[in-house]
Amino acid sequence: MAQLYRAWFRAKKDGRYIAGYKADTADDFGVELTDDPEQAVSMITDRTAAFEVEDRLFQALIRHPDPAGEPLNMATALDAFQVVRQFFEVETLAVPAGTEEGREITWVVDTAQVDLDKFGAEHQISRDDNRLVDLDEGDWAQLRFTVLQAQRYVDDLTGAYYPGMTVRHADEAFFWALPDEFMTWAEVVSQLDVFPCTVQFTKTPDGKPYAALQLPLAAEEE
Amino acid sequence: MRKIAFDTYPSYVDIPSSALPALVTFVNLGVKLDDESGIKFLTDVHEDEKNSNSILLSWSDDPADGLWFTAKEELAQYAGLLMRYAQSRGMSAAKAAKAIYVVPTQVGVKP
After folding, report:
1. Looking at the domain that runs over A131-220, which CATH code has it been given?
2. Potential cystine with A198: which of A158, A214, B4, B34 (Cβ 3.0-4.6 Å)?
3. Tell me: the pLDDT tens digits for A68-102?
């Protein structure tokens, strides 16, 4: 079995650890610090390349928002990465054999290159704090997006799966949560290798919701 | 169980027995015409008994009723058919290409 390492972000200035982040607006970013490594965001990995550990640890960090804060948009996340790189360094320690999983640790195991969080899920993001395709709003059946990715995600509060998608909006990528009616759709569409493509949300005459993909495949037939 | 990617085989019947059982992805195919309110989904294609030079297409408003496809190549053939149909209903070729929709419906098992 490969040697595993546990990694943290530590401040270059005073050695404190990053425990999470807070964003008062979608364009703002600040980290929360702790002296206790057990309360800090950490990751266990078998990776040894510095950039790879740093990248994955940052992904683990942005899954730890302050509950009262705003989710980061894509542009802010990129800026935040540069801030973290400037003021923090990655500390790694070899994990003794037989260590049990600790508090909200992101695992990166062997060559599969997947992050497994405390729910055993690859993709964890808060459902309630995001944009939602709401079937109770009258105009949902006219919604149309350029979708970059769609799949099942895990709500970081409940651990329950829910469908979601990332869409192109101007120069940014926005995340949208979808209602449970699209659970199967999200699971199936993630298998198809069709993104990015245009997705039209609509419903049958008797009101059953569905989402139709406008495929590049059809355009190639022209 | 093996998962068959959408572009691996030309059609459902071309999946070799050596690859079975396998998980396959099912999608339905539809077209949105300018003069109709919603997308309609292809449910059947058959020859016109009265005219051997034409074929008849059947439709449903519900993607769950549609013909299912498990392969990109087969889907492309039928998408081409629906594009020609849309053009026969007055659409330009470019507009017809954008009138074709696919709805992923399930991942199922071919035993």
Report:
1. 2.40.50
2. A214
3. 767 677 778 888 888 899 999 999 998 776 554 44
